[in-house]
Amino acid sequence: LPRPGETPAHIGGTTLFGDNVEDEWFIVYLVREITRDFPGLAARIDDNDGEFLLIEAADFLPKWLNPENSENRVFFYKGELHIIPLSETSEQDWDLSAPCPTIPQALDLLSTRSEEFLAAEPIRAAVYKRISGYPEKIQASLHRARCYLPAGIVAVLRQRPSLVAAAVQAFYLREPGDLRACRRPFTTFPAEQRVMTLVTFTQCLYAQLVQQKFVPDRRSGYTLPAPSHPQYRAYELGMKLAHGFEILCSKSSKVAPDAKRNVLSSPLWERFLRSLKEKDYFKGEMEGSAKYQELLHMAEDHFQQSVAVPEGSVEVSPGDEILTLLQTTSIDLKEFEREAACLPPEDDDSWLDITPDALDQMLKEARNESPPSTNEEEQSYDLETVAESMKAFVSKVSTHEGAEMPWSSDESHVTFDVDSFTKALDRILGADSEELDSDDLDEEEEEFDFSDGDGEGLAAGNQRQEQQESPEELVGSLRAYMDEMDRELAQTNVGKSFTTHKRGASSAEAAPAEGAGPERGAEDAELAPLDVDMNLVANLLESYSAQAGLAGPTSTLLQSMGVNLPGNTELTGPSSRAA
After folding, report:
1. pTM of the full predicted structure?
2. What are 94-111's pLDDT values in tens digits?
3. N or C: where does the chain have the smaller number of CB atoms within 10 Å of the terminal CB?
């Protein structure tokens, strides 16, 4: 037993699930069912990303829960997900500096007050949604396909169907050095004795195998028919799978042929065989009969791989297991050929192809959104909403942890308090709110005249700077600088690229400010205020159109704020749409 304060006695394990994330969630389902069937057990599970159960429910987590303090807080107990809150780990007799509870502390809380730590309903719903449908979903994730394989591989897969995963991974993750064994006639699985068979994959394994482009070496003996051949896919899959098995065997530790014989002659095997007979393992079969020999070979394989392996020894490699099975399994080529003549049909693999609409549907389901109709999309397409949501996002104060979306169109609306905005400017500039009309300051209220002549003006300016300027003078100076910058930018390509408000007839004919020269008046007449909202929306629509229906920064940003743009079904450009 462990010493007090250490992790108590437990059962643990590690699984390499590779690219098949569904395998990981199947393990979560098993762990939950174990805690349901054995109420006294508590279980926690994580992966290389950490507490991935919390990642799945990230939209519903409390603010205090983060990766730094989530360790030893998330458990399955009595078939339900529990989260130990932060306040429960701040007791007097515990280490206050420790951000996470210890395993004994967590187990003590769960055993006495588990009902208080039941995770919130949205968190549990998000996690349980990923494991819903099991165990029925297991069969739905399998795919049966025809493969043209060497008879030895067919015999091995009859005994150990799970070895197909190791073979696919060996081929899928192959390195240049692994193919050395495949650049010569295969020694373990020659291509001469091949038969058609039906192999069961997981959908992930099948996709990994079928999507790999590979041309076999001619010296291997594995030649493919023309792509138009009706059995081309079966030949190609069999060739790839045979390469995977050959790679595994080439990495074998080459156990001596008499190693199995030595193990089966030990007293431990005799006791094991005697116990099998006492429990009627052979079901009354006559010793020496075909059925008896088949059951005996299965018992020998199990004993060698499980019972006879000393504790703490290295796990048997797939290559060693394959070679052992080849030595103990009979290969009846004629029987395999008879079975090949009446194989059941293989499964349809159209699930490999996904349309853009189906992908959008999957993404919306992942975000718990119902698919809107075309009319709803058009009705929800509001340019003002696009502009206001972007303004709200830009004005949101972010932290060192990143920016947060300030609102959702389904929850609240953006409001703009003009009084608060002008008061904030008053505090910054020290001016009255009446003097701050808009972002586009009126040229008729200018107090300064920037002309070309100006030694005297500069000298006077220097004298004024020596004196303390009043708030009104500061505002006037800022307004003058901004006007001058607008005039300079208006004549450039950058300035001409923006959309401006159209001036009315009265403003266009208004005389320039008093004291301004003729050139200054012409510039002021041409200088029109920018339409900020129109420029913002036009640029967003142009970026959205450039995505061509694919994922991109504009759609991602707007959708996160609850704004959904309809598909661009028109042939016109984004600028005309914005107009």
Report:
1. 0.58
2. 443 447 888 888 898 998
3. N
